[in-house]
UniProtKB/TrEMBL annotation:
Short name of any one Pfam family annotated for the protein: MFS_1
Primary residence: membrane
Entry-linked InterPro entries: MFS, MFS_dom, MFS_trans_sf
UniProt-annotated location(s): Cell membrane
A molecular function (GO) term: transmembrane transporter activity
GO cellular component, one term: plasma membrane
Keyword Membrane attached: yes
Official protein name in the record: MFS transporter
Record organism: Lacisediminihabitans changchengi
Bilayer-crossing regions: 54-72, 84-103, 109-129, 141-165, 171-190, 202-221, 233-251, 271-295, 307-329, 341-360, 366-385, 406-424, 444-463
Membrane-topology descriptor: Multi-pass membrane protein
Keywords, in A-Z order: Membrane, Transmembrane, Transmembrane helix
């Protein structure tokens, strides 16, 4: 370490300050993912493009986030988590500025890709907490930072809607750039430099293979409705992506320094936690995919509630706010009953929420209630996932393991968006030139969501009740003269 880094460690800030900064950066990164959601209908006009091309403004961010999270996690384990976080926040700032100066499709997509890279700060932030916090403080801090993945999008959506409704859309990107800059400065000042590093060489071939395989699968899943599920392009991407990932897995198992240690990922606690993460991510995204359509559809359709964009966004705010409020409660539940119990409990609450949604979705207060209940369940489950992962992997692999878990949540969200689109396409009627989902369509979506999350709860039941835990870095006594 450099003398400056040693001096910084000797003046380490409080645990609360570190946690607050990492939570803030997580909120900013999650906010940028849903930044353009309020202006999706206007994007073709704003960017002088077709409707299908404009959707890449969202798709590109999703792909960039999914690919970069495990890669940035591995780089964080090797070269320092704080350093990689600063790079990712710098990418967010640069991407936001590019978008802020652009009114054409290609530059905006390029900027959105750079913004998408920043989502890795959440899994890196969780890993930093393991390195620097006392074990007694770790549970609540992890729960809070983990929740930012959902809180940032749910709370940021109405903010973005208000800005988009009253100002030029470029102000959205200036807002993201300012928030990213604040986050970067705070991380530089408050977060201590990483002392736990694995070193070694970065698995470039593994990273390329992982990126190609994941892009193929995610593109096929996210664009299948548009391109057609039996089209040559969709099938080639889907099958090709699976083949590439199989070859990638074979290569990783034989690599001395793999991007993702698949032997660790195959451990029962890690594997089952990741499988459950897919289902929780599925359920969480159903709320952001189906509820806005229900809230904003015209009342004359007999299904919709006739709200405007801002009002509909405010109705979904309880989802994020409840997740934030639940984070300390979720930590106490995990501390008292274990993270396995918390994951099962959280998933069970989400199942109950969607069962309620099947029966009650005819009033605005119904949607607010269901969103809040989903927030309770997702908040508890999201808090448990990183803890389960950290108990099953060595500290030197925390960032990459948590990164893979975040990818699983993203995969679940992508599948949820695709399933929702398929069901709505087959269960809609035309109203004044617009295709509006029917009541049966919404019910089917909620039933599928309940079934998928229930499958995740069942898989979580097979997570071992007790697993040997790796000690956190902060719990290991320091050597005389070493930095605290």
């Amino acid at each position: 370490m450099t003398p400056a880094e040693r001096r910084k460690l000797s003046r380490r800030p409080s645990d609360r300050a570190v946690t607050a900064v990492l939570a803030f950066t997580g909120l900013v990164a999650a906010f940028t993912q849903t930044l353009v959601t309020p202006i999706i209908p206007e994007l073709p006009t704003l960017l002088h493009s077709s409707v299908s091309d404009a959707t890449w403004v969202l798709t590109s961010t999703l792909l960039a986030a999914a690919i970069s999270i495990p890669i940035s996690g591995r780089l964080g384990d090797m070269y320092g988590k704080r350093t990689v976080m600063l790079v990712l926040l710098g990418s967010l700032i640069v991407g936001s500025i590019i978008c802020a100066f652009s009114s054409e499709l290609i530059p905006v997509i390029a900027g959105r890709v750079l913004q998408g890279f920043s989502l890795g700060v959440i899994s890196l932030g969780i890993s930093v907490l393991r390195d620097v916090l006392h074990p007694k403080s770790l549970g609540g801090a992890v729960a809070l930072v983990s929740a930012t993945l959902g809180v940032g999008g749910a709370v940021g959506l109405p903010i973005a809607a208000v800005v988009a409704q009253n100002l030029d859309f470029h102000f959205l990107f200036w807002l993201a750039a300012i928030l990213g800059a604040v986050g970067l400065v705070l991380v530089f000042i408050v977060v201590p430099p990483s002392t736990l590093r694995t070193g070694g060489h970065f698995d470039v071939v593994g990273a390329i293979g992982f990126a190609i395989g994941l892009i193929g699968i995610l593109l096929a899943v996210s664009k299948g409705n548009t391109w057609g599920w039996t089209s040559p392009v969709t099938l080639a991407l889907l099958i090709g992506g699976v083949v590439v990932l199989v070859i990638w897995g074979w290569f990783e198992l034989r690599s001395r320094e793999p991007l993702v240690d698949l032997r660790v990922a195959a451990r029962r606690p890690v594997l089952l936690t990741n499988l459950t993460s897919i289902t929780i991510g599925f359920g969480f995204f159903i709320t952001t995919a189906a509820f806005p359509a229900l809230l904003e559809a015209p009342v004359a359709t007999g299904v919709g509630l006739g709200l405007g964009l801002v009002a509909a966004s405010l109705c979904l705010m309880p989802l994020g706010l409840v997740m934030f409020v639940m984070s300390p409660i979720a930590a106490r539940i995990s501390g008292a009953r274990g993270p396995r119990f918390s994951l099962i409990l959280g998933g069970g609450v989400v199942v109950v929420a969607f069962v309620i949604a099947v029966l009650l979705h005819a009033e605005v207060w119904h949607i607010i209630l269901i969103s809040a209940v989903v927030g309770v369940g997702v908040g508890i489950a999201y808090a448990a996932m990183p803890t389960l992962i950290m108990h099953a992997v060595p500290a030197s692999e925390t960032a990459s393991a948590n990164g893979l878990n975040s990818v699983m949540r993203t995969l679940g969200s992508t599948i949820a968006g695709t399933v929702t689109g398929l069901i709505f396409a087959g269960n809609s009627r035309v109203f004044h030139g617009l295709a509006v989902p029917t009541d049966a369509g919404f019910r089917i979506v909620f039933i599928i969501a309940a079934a998928v999350v229930l499958a995740g709860v069942i898989s979580a039941l097979f997570i071992p009740r007790r697993e040997p835990s790796y000690t956190t870095t902060s719990s290991i006594p320091t050597q005389p003269g070493s930095p605290d």
